Amino acid sequence: MNAIEVDTTRLPLLLHDLRLPAIARLWPDFAERADKEGWPAARLLSVLAELELAERGRRRVERHLVEARLPAGKTLDNFDFTAVPMLSKARVMALAAGDAWLDKASNLLLFGPPGAGKSHCASAISHALIENGYRVLFTRTTDIVQKLQVARQGLQLEAAIAKLDKYDLLVLDDLSYVHKDHAETSVLFELIGARYERRSMLITANQPFADWSKVFPDQAMMIAAVDRLVHHSIIFEMNVESYRRRGALDRKARAAASSKRSTEPVEP
Ligand code: ADP
Ligand code: MG
Fold it and tell me: What global pTM score does this model have?
């Protein structure tokens, strides 16, 4: 049987121009296999198309992970749920899957003292959401307030807030560290208003609302902001001692126990 000669010299260029890098890389091996095993042409075409699509999906997730600026290495895999007994693992897993909360533009509010694991939890949920196809931006509240202020000075506040619409979830870490004395924080109010009932936010703070009058320029603005945030919201109160501190105490206790053991007389 005579194999029909096919000129494939232009193929790499064509596939490059068509932006099909997976097919460009994989077609020679698959074509050889198809020839050897007598695959129908339609099978070869569909296998290559599926591979390109899968790789495109993986690249998209990678891009979204980079753009999200999550703290490194804080995932659900290394989040110790036993340290926060009041947090339902099943509930967190459901939120991390996306669920309906992002479609409904609900907010997630995490409260707890420093070291309770709020940022870790927020990052872990964000990480999982991105892997499930959502887009997230993780920011320290002080950073985003500063950026939005710069935008406002350039009369670009509305555009800057609109740009954040592409994120299904915007994480504002440490809201209570923002201080109205440091800066004019009404931009935060604008942001909350703009996302209200349209796009979700995840906010972490040390205190549930108690200190927020320090954050917003006036009482009316604070009440309106809290009202919008909690209207459709899920609230987790993570009232546990600092994870780091507990780790240090555990280590100290273990060290004390082992030094005690080593000084105890050995039983005959
Ligand atoms: P917070 O944001 O509430 O101040 P972090 O999330 O920054 O606390 O947690 C402080 C440190 O302790 C981080 O290194 C974090 O990874 C770790 N940590 C806190 N809680 C947990 C937990 N439940 N499981 C694993 N690591 C945790
Ligand atoms: Mg934190």
Answer: 0.86
